[in-house]
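FAQ
Q: What does a multi-component entry look like?
A: The components come first, one per line:
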Amino acid sequence: MNEFEKVGVSFVKDLRRIVGERAVIYEDREALEAYSSDESGGVYYSHLPEVVVKPENAKQISEIVKLAGDARVPITPRGAGSGLAGGAVPIYGGVVISFERMNKILEIDEENLVAVSEPGVVTNDLCKKVAERNLYYAGYPMSVETSFIGGNVATNAGGSKVIKYGNTVHHILGVEAVLPSGETVRFGGKRRKDSSGYDFVRLLAGSEGTLALFTKIFVNLIPLPGKTVDLLVPFKSTEDAVRNVAVAIKEGGVLPTAVEFIDKLSVKLGEKYNNVVLPFSDTAEAYLIVQFEGKSREELEKIYVNAGKALISHGAMNVFVADNRTNSDKIWKVRRNWLEGIKAFDPYVPTGDVVVPTSEIPKIIDFIKILSKESGVKIPVAGHAADGNLHPAPMKPEDMNPAAWKDYSEEILDKIALKAAELGGAVSGEHGIGFIKKRVLAETKPAQVSIMRSLKRVFDPNGILNPGKLFDL
Amino acid sequence: MNEFEKVGVSFVKDLRRIVGERAVIYEDREALEAYSSDESGGVYYSHLPEVVVKPENAKQISEIVKLAGDARVPITPRGAGSGLAGGAVPIYGGVVISFERMNKILEIDEENLVAVSEPGVVTNDLCKKVAERNLYYAGYPMSVETSFIGGNVATNAGGSKVIKYGNTVHHILGVEAVLPSGETVRFGGKRRKDSSGYDFVRLLAGSEGTLALFTKIFVNLIPLPGKTVDLLVPFKSTEDAVRNVAVAIKEGGVLPTAVEFIDKLSVKLGEKYNNVVLPFSDTAEAYLIVQFEGKSREELEKIYVNAGKALISHGAMNVFVADNRTNSDKIWKVRRNWLEGIKAFDPYVPTGDVVVPTSEIPKIIDFIKILSKESGVKIPVAGHAADGNLHPAPMKPEDMNPAAWKDYSEEILDKIALKAAELGGAVSGEHGIGFIKKRVLAETKPAQVSIMRSLKRVFDPNGILNPGKLFDL
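Then the predicted structure of the entire assembly, as tokens:
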């Protein structure tokens, strides 16, 4: 498999006929380079597409797919390029289909509590638009300000609110998609239940563009939650912080919206990058950020007083309450800009993304600490502790050359991913597999990957859709 | 396809070796008959299995599956037999695998908020057990008192609480399953997020035993909701009732847990059957039952006062508030025992299960009314109005003979199902397809069924697992 043809002049001519002259990038190296990598680190993980095409609708995508299928040219779909696993990198060249022009919110249906969106809509824009109508899209990922809704569905993105709301797939009622055959098929839609055959919406979510290309997305909406409160909770040790995740989940009396973990090194770098100072940052080894939602101030107060007392009695150094936007933003800034903060000091930093059952967080954190010591590599960690999803970010030792670091950092991240799987977790909780994590996926889910391959062949017998992602055929 | 071998004596001997003498039923017609039908109506839709086997664990199931695969004997998995679409009916004979002895709750993991259950646990028992620890399984179907959790997952069962909590699949974190190859594979588990390849948990949920047999189920738990209140709301016309579904969803300020619809004919039959009288039952043409959850009495009061006022101002005849168990049970009795109530007066009644976008409820109700008039058949309707899932139940005209009624009632239900799909819904919202709805599924989802067939072949190349369900190969 994976023997593809090169893009030729007549192929490009056909693409231009389909989408128009200006929606095709060809033979312009600088312009093509913008489509050669994602946030996983262009320095290591980039590959130039032969041609980029920017369709506007399902019909054009269908024609492109048929054209590429006939010509045996590989297709790599691309959202905002904010992925962290290389899913949008065209590792076999060929065509990149960029969804950037399919950026319309087609409908906000208040009666059915559904929004219909094109895949290239920035998720944050969607959130804002529905908020204007007092509605809420709860599949909110952390990268909401840049990522596209289509990419969120393709990776089944997570974020901080999964403990309460579940990940992206929980909020997708349907998709319209172009299959590798060129056929456009609607799966699901505005109905809220469906027990009529295999659930392809949920199969396609998280399939990272290897089975189909989304052209419309039906998003579930709920009433906008009332009010939120954020607690910033410093701890003397990471052990204390990690032990208190369960306390934060249980003692407020309601499920928190988020329980985020961030360690001292991350905070220190974040403070510099964001030009802020967090309380206790000299003495605290780790923090939790705990968020609750409630219908009223009074209700929230009851919740955070309970949770706060419990956290203090279980070893928190203090509990800082932010119940307004300004204070809340200060708390979240360091966590939200975590990766940018580290990258400002080490452009070579890769990000891991592993998930474990929440009870196993202490073990995976211990493992990372020991690995850091043994390897002589600093590994700041932050993550969505409420759902066991952690992001270790090994930093290049100053004296190591970038080429050697690529291999060494991959080795470190692979070890952490394998350990997470061993603890009952998985090698990715929210970023996806792309091509960077193929090895560890194959190692931890051999039986499952074998079924994935067979499934892939059913959908895409020529293997032209995002080849080399998730697994090799 | 579907050319199967008959069960022979040596096959039965092998089964007895695997599960023990007493866990096999063979050549005992009366005992076999108990496994020949489900709640879809044994009088029409039954077929005798050749042999019934009651395994105790995954290893036995794996051996049975391998044995049946080698012998080309079809396997029909069976939970509680409470299905309404014939999914558990062994229409090609062969082996029925009954999960009745796999009835242990293996673990309630309070730290990870996960229960691990065998498939043959009665869902209601699971709910009670976790409630003892102040936890809640939110994938609660209406048939909770009889159905098995394994069957709930197999049909992706719905219920009344989908508007707030989603259907079964939203609450399943993982399954262990025996594949048609005999291999036992774990998909998912105690981790709460996973973006590592195709999501087989969600593909297997709702696949009605055609792809794999569940041997363990990992169920998501949440803190037990505080308090509930139920509103019984009579309306002068079905139009008024249906129009007020949106009012009930929006005007309380929080999502209701349930908005149920029940029409006059259903109420009348239900009153007789349950020996109760509902207020306004002589003058009301339809009712909504609206349920809210809240942390405190005060919060709930605010919610139901708002919702109640809005409902009255939109045409409700009155709003009866039940905020204690006794009153609440009275309200729900008629709705919960709806089908039993009708069956007491017409043993030939079949139940439909269609879903539409909630905005289309008026149209599907109108359609049913007109169809009722045109066909001269009474069609009481109840359903989960909050998610557009309605159950029409055509009643046999007294002068029609049962054989003619089978065809006539199927024709009526098919028409309603096709109309639901045309309105943007689906031919089943929660009961599944079984074999009774194959026709309408094929008609409304031709492209999707074609992919389903291909997928089925990947998992089950010999087609021995629940053959003839969902589609014909």
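Q: Is there any commentary attached?
A: Sometimes. For this entry: Chain A has a mean pLDDT of 94.
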